[in-house]
Amino acid sequence: MKTVLLGVMLILILFIIFLLHRFTRKKHSHMLVKLMVFHLYVYIGLLFFVSYHFFSVLPYHMWTDEVNALFSIEARSATNHTASPRLANFKQPHSNLLHVPLINQFPELPRGCEVTALAMLMQYYDVDTDKLTLAKQVKKDTTPYNVIDNHVHFGNPHNGFVGDMYTFEEPGLGVYYEPLLELANSYDHVTAKNLTGQDFNDLLATVGRHQPVLVITNITFKPLPSEAFTTWQTTDGPITITYKMHAVVITGYDKDRIFFNDPYDGQMKQENKTDFISAWEQMGSQALSLSIND
Questions:
Q1: C-alpha–C-alpha distance, residues 116 and 32, integer Å
Q2: Which CATH architecture group holds 96-292?
Q3: From 259's CA, which of 46, 51, 237, 242 has a CA 20 to 30 Å away?
Q4: The dihedral formed by the CA atoms of 193, 199, 201 and 204, expressed in degrees to the nearest 10
């Protein structure tokens, strides 16, 4: 439509120029020439106006509308998603993005992705803490690293942080959701909600209510091959782990992507939703969120 309109206006301008040329050569009245020049300026002005409106202003609005659709901060009343039965009364926005503080685990905490992710959650709610404080406070499983008959004996991340959080020079792994829940709940006015084992749509619904979600995943954010996992012995029995385990904070989503804060480099990233969900489920569907009590 806009191309046709511009074409018509251009033809009109050329026609007026043609008439001006003819009338000038035939020495028509000076007043008529002035009138035609006036119309020429009008059409040229309209041409520039339409060109600006369609090729400058409109694309800008189209772009900003698209960005707002993908990264909406305010909850939408309309949705194309079907809420899970447990959240049937909540209208989940079709996209959302929260502004959660970005924190880099390095250089102080090479293995401290979990407490760094928790620090992001805490600071989102203006809780006065940081990654180093949380690193000291999180419960530890102090079981020493041993290899007996080619079998590793080490701690259980369900019980506390396993190994050394501060250097790769010593054995270590990380921590799962239970000690993180316990740590968060130890803060006044903070309530940590266990979302482990829930449907991923429940996590998205939580984000849609402006509550970021901490998840345990792996560093690739895609399903890992079986050889990426190993089994070691703990005081509670054998446990299967991967040294690629990681923790991030989900901050948003749209139809095809998950947006998250990655403590590994302190950057906001995005990943294909299907891959991200599969990686999360492979790590036991571990997740938690926070809320503040008045």
A1: 78
A2: Alpha-Beta Complex (3.90)
A3: 242
A4: 30
Residue spans per domain, the chain: 1-79, 96-292
Is the four-CA dihedral 196, 129, 264, 68 of positive or negative sign?
positive
Residues paired with residue 34 on neighbouring β-strands, in sequence order: none
| Residue 120: per-residue pLDDT | 99
pLDDT at 19 over 70: no
Quote the pLDDT of residue 248.
99
High-pLDDT (> 70) share of the chain, %: 69
Q: What is the 3-state secondary structure (H, E, C) of 63-109?
A: HHHHHHHHCCCCCCCCCCCCCCHHHCCCCCCCCEECCCCCCCCCCCC
Q: Convert 248-277 to b/e letters by CB count within 10 Å (16 or more is b).
A: bbbbbbbeebbbbbbbbeeebebbebeebb
